[in-house]
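Q: Give me a protein?
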Amino acid sequence: MKNWKNHLLVLILVVVAEAIGVMKFKFGPGTIVLLPMLYALIMGVFLSPKFLKVVNDKDMKDAGSLITISLMLLMARYGTTIGPTLPTIIKSSPALILQEFGNLGTVFIGVPLAVMLGLKRETIGAAHSIAREPNIALISDIYGLDGEEGQGVMGVYISGTVIGTVFFGLLASFFAAYTPLHPYSLAMASGVGSASMMTAAVGSLSAMYPEMQETLTAFGAASNMLSGLDGLYMCLWLSLPATEWLYKRCYRLKYGVEAPKVKQRSKSNPSKGV
C-alpha cells in the first residue's frame, strides 16, 4: 500500500469496467467481443499525464512494478482450467511446442517493413518478437533499454498493450468465422506470451463457441504458458540472430551501405547502454 492512490484508482476502474460488462457485436457471421479489461485499459490511458493528469510519472512507475504480480494472479486462475483438460492438452503438445516457430514470422515480415519505414537499430527490438515482458528483459540484457533496440522493443510493447487486445479479439473472430481453422487451433494460436491478448482472443472464441469455453480457455492458457517458457529461448537462439542477419541485408538494400556496427551491452558494466 505504498502508493494508495494507485490502488484506489485501480479499484474504481475495475468496478466501472465490470459494471459495463462484456459487450458483443455481430460482425458478419462472427462476433466482436469487448471485454472489461479493454475499458479499464482505455480509462487508464486517459488518466495519464498526457491527458487528464490524474496520475503522474511516479504513479506510473509504481504501477509498472506491479504488472508481473498482477499477471501472476491471472495465470494462476488460468492454471485451474488446465488441470481438467490435461489429457487433451498432452495429446496436442507437439502442436503447442511447434507453434513457437511462429516467432520467425514477425522477423521476416516486420524487419523489411520497419527498414522500409525508416527505422534503424530500433528494428532489432521491434521486430524480433511480439515484444512482451520476457522479450523486454532479453533486449535489456543484450543491448540495454536506453539504446535504439530498447526504444524499439518498448514501442511495440506499448502499442501491443493498447491496440493488441482489440486486434487479437477481432482477429480470432475473423478467423473463426471465415476460415476452416478449428477453434482449438485458434485458441492455441492466441497464446503468444501476452495474457491480455490471449484473454481477448479466447473471450471472442468462447462467445462464438460457448459449449467449448472450458477447453478453449485451457488451450489458450497452456499455449501462453509454453510461450513464456520456451519462447524466450526461441528468441535468443533463432529469431534474434535472424533479425540481426535480415536487418543488415535490408539496410544494405535500402541505403546501399553496410549497417553501422553497434556493440552489445557490456557485461562488465551493465548500467551502460549502447
Observations:
- The first strand starts at residue 23 and ends at 27.
- The chain has two domains: 1-55, 66-255.
- The longest helix spans residues 213-255.
